[in-house]
Specification:
The structure is a single chain. The protein is an alpha+beta fold. Among the domains are: about 5-75; about 175-324, Histidine kinase-like ATPase, C-terminal domain (Heat Shock Protein 90). The protein has helices spanning about 5-10, 15-35, 40-75, 80-85, 90-140, 145-165, 180-190, 195-200, 215-230, 270-280, 285-295; strands at about 175-180, 200-205, 210-215, 240-245, 245-250, 300-305, 310-315.
């Protein structure tokens, strides 16, 4: 194991050395100033110098022992022990820096794990509409409406992955301005018109006559995820969109959500019992909506009952233009 360099030791103890030699020359100077016995003065001075030399050797051994112990702790990456034994500003700064690096690394690893998990689920799920489209195209008589439904679903999955990528980028392209809430809702309904027709679902949209301060593209994307989810689990039913106090409600009378699944429906990759039963859910749409909502300053909550239906509430309190 390496020892503390002599040069580093002398540099660190320079004030001790200066004081030691000052005392040595002071003792010698007393002979000239006070005319003490010359031999005694020299004897005392060099005896002091000898004892000072012994002291410096002893001090070096202590510093060297601490140095080797600190190096050993560093090699073992026992940073907490270093801080406990050597509470110097340098050790504290080193420990703080290492802890910050550790935290950043953990965040990075979690983010990579989340991305990997998302891509795994997404890749698995997009295979279904692609496979269905291949089967439809192999038929002698191609059903255009069925093909369009599968193409729309593929486009939706592609939109989701692009939205996820933009959301996790270092700089997201949010552009906030005042928009008509009703116009945004109508554009989303028009986009999903084929899906509504394909599932034989009725849409009941009640005008809100509200203006909101938001990013229209991202808010539309948020609504698309919720409405798409409602369509997936509603057959020959209805989906209502209306305002209740300061909350936009998207209500369906579909298969509903099991009580034990409700607390986790906004978690990434969580499909719940009915999602697994239907084999249609990625468990990503509502998680995307929740995360986008944080950036848009809106919150989501859910109420549901199996075989009765589901209500998703989008709290608009923070973005409503009260002056409108």
């Amino acid at each position: 194991m390496s020892h503390l360099p002599i040069k580093s030791f002398l540099k660190r103890e320079k004030f001790t050395l200066i004081l030691g030699f000052f005392i040595f020359f002071y003792i010698l100077g007393t002979y000239l100033i006070f005319e003490f016995d010359r031999d005694k003065s020299i004897y005392i001075a060099f005896l002091y110098l000898f004892l000072f030399f012994i002291y410096m050797i002893f001090l070096y051994s202590i510093r060297d022992r601490d140095y080797r112990e600190e190096i050993d702790l560093l090699n073992r990456k026992d940073y907490e022990k270093i801080l406990e034994l050597y509470e110097s500003p340098l050790s504290k700064a080193l420990y703080k820096s290492l802890e910050e690096n550790k935290r950043v690394k953990e965040i990075g690893e979690k983010k990579r794990a989340d991305v990997k998990n998302y891509l795994t689920i997404w890749t698995h799920q997009i295979k279904s509409p692609i496979f269905a489209l291949k089967l439809l195209l192999k038929k002698d008589e191609i059903n255009k409406i069925d093909c369009e439904k599968e193409i729309f679903e593929i486009e939706e999955y592609v939109g989701n992955i692009l939205g996820y990528a933009r959301m996790n980028a270092n700089s997201t392209d949010y552009v906030f301005s005042k928009y008509s809430l009703d116009e945004i809702i109508r554009s989303v309904i028009r986009k999903y018109s084929i899906q509504f027709i394909g599932k034989n679902n009725r849409v009941d949209f009640f005008e809100t006559k509200k203006i909101i301060l938001t990013d229209a593209k991202w808010f539309s994307f948020l609504l698309e995820q919720i409405i798409s989810n409602a369509i997936k689990y509603t057959h020959n039913g209805s989906i209502a969109i209306y305002l209740e106090k300061n909350e936009l409600v998207i209500e369906d009378n579909g298969i509903g959500i099991m009580p034990e699944d409700l607390p986790r429906i906004f978690d990434a990759g969580y499909t719940g019992y009915n999602g697994r039963l239907e084999k249609k859910s990625t468990g990503l749409g509502l998680n995307l909506s929740k995360n986008i909502g944080k950036s848009l300053r809106v919150t989501l909550r859910c109420e549901s009952e199996p075989k009765v239906g589901t209500k998703i509430y989008v709290n608009l309190k923070n973005i409503l233009d009260e002056s409108a």
